[in-house]
């Protein structure tokens, strides 16, 4: 990694962070914004954007992996999906909502959206696409004892 850090940041409203990754020919920008509402001072939104570096090949393909975990008492589950815990399945089309609950936050949601219409997925010729289509959200859930959280893969 060639560097990372906050370009601007305010704990009350959000910020923008840049991550420079020459090994993968990609620069990532994460933008966080806080908006008012709810019982806990507001909600957070995040946008993740990848920009190919100048030396990137014309066929560069990348995948973002989003990890959500719940430590302590509470729950996380994919809303409206017919996916059993631990089952990967063939993925979910379109926007995905994760419902959660904790003693500290009460009920909450995490929405993963496909983004603007300008987001397009590359065409797929590789046979692995039949098993794990990368234009869908794939969910894999595990429950791990608290003392083994650091070992989760």
TrEMBL record:
Domain (Glycosyl hydrolase family 63 N-terminal): residue spans on this chain: 1-153
Major location (coarse): endoplasmic reticulum
Keyword match Hydrolase: yes
Top-rank EC class of the record's enzyme: hydrolase
One GO molecular-function entry: Glc3Man9GlcNAc2 oligosaccharide glucosidase activity
Pathway stated in the Swiss-Prot or TrEMBL entry: Glycan metabolism; N-glycan degradation
InterPro entries: Glyco_hydro_63N, Glyco_hydro_63N_sf, Glycoside_hydrolase_63
Keywords carried by this UniProt record: Endoplasmic reticulum, Glycoprotein, Glycosidase, Hydrolase
Biological role: Cleaves the distal alpha 1,2-linked glucose residue from the Glc(3)Man(9)GlcNAc(2) oligosaccharide precursor.
Recorded family membership: Belongs to the glycosyl hydrolase 63 family.
Protein name: Mannosyl-oligosaccharide glucosidase
Organism: Cryomyces antarcticus
The encoding gene: CWH41_1
């Amino acid at each position: 990694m060639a560097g990372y850090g906050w370009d601007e940041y305010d704990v009350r409203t959000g910020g923008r962070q840049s991550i420079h990754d020459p090994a993968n020919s990609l620069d990532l920008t994460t933008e966080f914004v806080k908006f008012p509402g709810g019982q806990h001072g507001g909600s957070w939104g995040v946008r993740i954007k990848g920009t190919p570096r100048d030396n990137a090949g014309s066929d560069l393909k990348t995948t973002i992996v989003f990890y959500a975990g719940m430590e302590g008492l509470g729950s996380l589950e994919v809303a409206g999906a017919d996916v059993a815990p631990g089952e990967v399945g063939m993925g979910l089309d379109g926007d995905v909502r994760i419902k959660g609950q904790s003693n500290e936050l009460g009920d909450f949601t995490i929405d993963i959206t496909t983004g603007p219409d300008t987001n397009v997925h590359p065409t797929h010729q590789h046979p692995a696409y039949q098993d794990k289509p990368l234009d869908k959200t794939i969910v894999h859930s595990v429950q791990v004892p608290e003392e083994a959280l650091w070992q989760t893969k």
